[in-house]
Amino acid sequence: MLDTASQPAVAAAAPHPRRGELLLPAALLVAYAVLLLWNLSVPQPVDHSRYMDAARSFPSRPADPIFNHQYLRIGLTAPTALVMRFFGYSEVTYHAFPVAAALLLFASVYAIGRMLFDRLVGAVSAVVLACVGIVVVAGTELLPDLPATALFTAAVALAVAIRQGLLAHRRIWLVAIGVLMGWSYLVREFIVFVWPLVPVLLWRRIGRWDALWAFVPVALTGVGETAFNAWLYRDPLARLHAGSGLGNLPSRPEVAKTFHDLPLWVYLWRLPQQLAALPEGPGMLLLLALTLGAGVLCAVRLVRAWVRRNDSPEERPAEGGAEGGGPYVRRAGVFALWIGLLWVPLTLLGGVLDPAHPKLRLQLLRYWYPLFPAFVLGGVAVLWLLARAVRLPERVRSAAPAVVVCCVGLAVTGLSVLGLPGKPGWAGSPRVSSDALPEFRSWLAHSGARTVWADAKLYRILPIYFVSPTGHRVWRGHLRPLTNATGPAAGDYVVVFSVGSDACPRCGDTAKAVLPGIPSTWHQVLTSHDRLLHVWQIA
User: Fold this and answer.
1) Contact 382, 294 (CB under 8 A)
2) For a tag on the chain, would you pick the N or C end, based on fewer CB atoms within 10 A?
3) Whole-angstrom Cα distance, residue 54 to residue 30?
4) Beta-carbon neighbour count of residue 28 at 10 Å?
5) What is the DSSP letter of 472?
6) Are 108 and 122 in contact (CB under 8 A)?
7) What is the largest CA-CA distance in the chain?
8) Which residue in 443, 446, 445, 456 sits closest to 535, CA to CA?
9) Long-range Cβ contacts of 201-208 (<8 Å, 24+ apart)
């Protein structure tokens, strides 16, 4: 796919990076780690808290089978359970694995861009992807989609490195690729749709016996999970059964009508439609279009080369020649293949095959995360190639690719961070900027409160803040679920969070439902600095 060579790659094909070349990615990675730690997202009382519950009781089954699919994603819950052994039910436990996965994704995207194209392509692609608002949030919240994407992208980066002969001890790295792919499946099952990209990258670069080194860890992952499910659920295929029933889970009528029984074009247009709703949507759509355009061009050139080769077998195009598509065009085209491998099955399962019973809610952009590295890398690479192809005066020719790529990268990143009128960026979002819950923890530790009441949703995430970020207990009172204003007794405290804010929308909505008004006998004892959290004491 990338080129027509059939021999195994050798180290001379691509020199090892000098130590100085590692300074840029290292500096960018440190900067991104600081950005993530500075913008830790507020835990949410939905799937996020279910994964914390699954980790706390790992290995176990949920009391309600409706949550089986979350408990079955042991690639996420097992590492979280390991962290929980040291840090308890805390912020560190909640954020550790997602942050590590986000950093792995950043490094992998940089490596792929650097190896296939240029250091500029790698750096700009990594920065653009890392600063997309939903990726910043997903990089610090306990959900499976971004970690699965990161693990698979790391496997792709290793496959590219093996293809280019950059890694010694190739069999060890093939085992690592197999481990990463198997782990990605244990985190999020439909990541398997993009797995064929790895064999494509390794085609004609490793022998059939070498391929076993990557295949065995994947096979062992499947066997191990089957045995685990048979032991715990009495169903070897419990993961398959739970995953295939996601579309049939109970949904509110207003939610169900957004993905049931819709026209065909709605399902086909889901990805661009959802991207367009983002503040950085125009830039993301541009990168997606450029990537798909490169894929079409690559396919056309490959077909033409195949036809000419069959018509005149003795006339074989030279390696990298125009008829062969050129190495850079083929490298850009492989990202379109990456997109197609996930877009086709997700769209079919998400409503095309059975609009009355879709298996997935495709309006959730996190289902599409595995495509984000592909079209960001592909789009940035195409911009770089176009700038190189334009005939310019000698003085500006060398600088043109950097100028074009950096300008587009800055525009997309700026929209992500700052947003547009009516579409604010992530920098000002309470989802990552609110310190109300840590502020409540500080107050609680010195308040002397014995009983605190919270709505049913806030009730699920408050225990994270009864301990320090690293798990040290700071409050030993009692938390009670609030159902109406008459429940709390005199001397008790009631806490309300995120009314009218996206810091925790479910918390705010539930609080408004159970407390349409504040009784006159309650007096306020705390309001957070961002005015999103309020505490009252009952007189």
Assistant:
1) yes
2) C
3) 31
4) 18
5) -
6) no
7) 94
8) 443
9) 201/1, 201/2, 201/156, 201/159, 201/160, 201/163, 201/334, 202/159, 202/162, 202/163, 203/1, 204/5, 204/6, 204/7, 204/8, 205/8, 205/9, 205/162, 205/163, 206/8, 206/162, 206/170, 206/174, 207/8
Q: Helix, strand or coil for residue 522?
A: strand
Average pLDDT, the chain: 88
Residue type, 21: E
Question: Cβ of 280: how many Cβ atoms within 10 Å?
Answer: 27
- Which residues fall within 8 angstroms of residue 250, CB to CB, at 6 or more apart? 66
pLDDT at 532 over 90: yes
Cross-strand partners of 480: 453
Sign of CA dihedral 65, 67, 69, 74: negative
Closest CA to 80 of 142, 152, 138, 148: 142
CA distance 243 to 57: 21
What is the rounded distance in angstroms from the CA atom of residue 205 to the CA atom of residue 166? 12
pTM, 2 dp: 0.92
In the structure encoding, which two tokens stand for residue 363, read together? 């309006």
Runs of H (alpha helix) within 62-118? 68-71, 74-87, 91-116
Taken as a whole, the chain contains a residue count of 539
Question: Which phi and psi (to 5°) does residue 494 adopt?
Answer: -125, 130
Instruction: Give the rounded distance of the alpha carbon of 432 from its chain centre.
Output: 16
- Residue 55 contacts residue 81 (beta carbons within 8 Å): yes
CA 241 to centroid of chain Cα atoms? 24
Residue range 227-248: mean pLDDT, rounded: 82
Q: Is the pLDDT of residue 20 over 80?
A: no
Cβ-proximal residues to 136 (8 Å cutoff; 6+ apart), any chain: 35, 36, 39, 130, 416, 426, 432
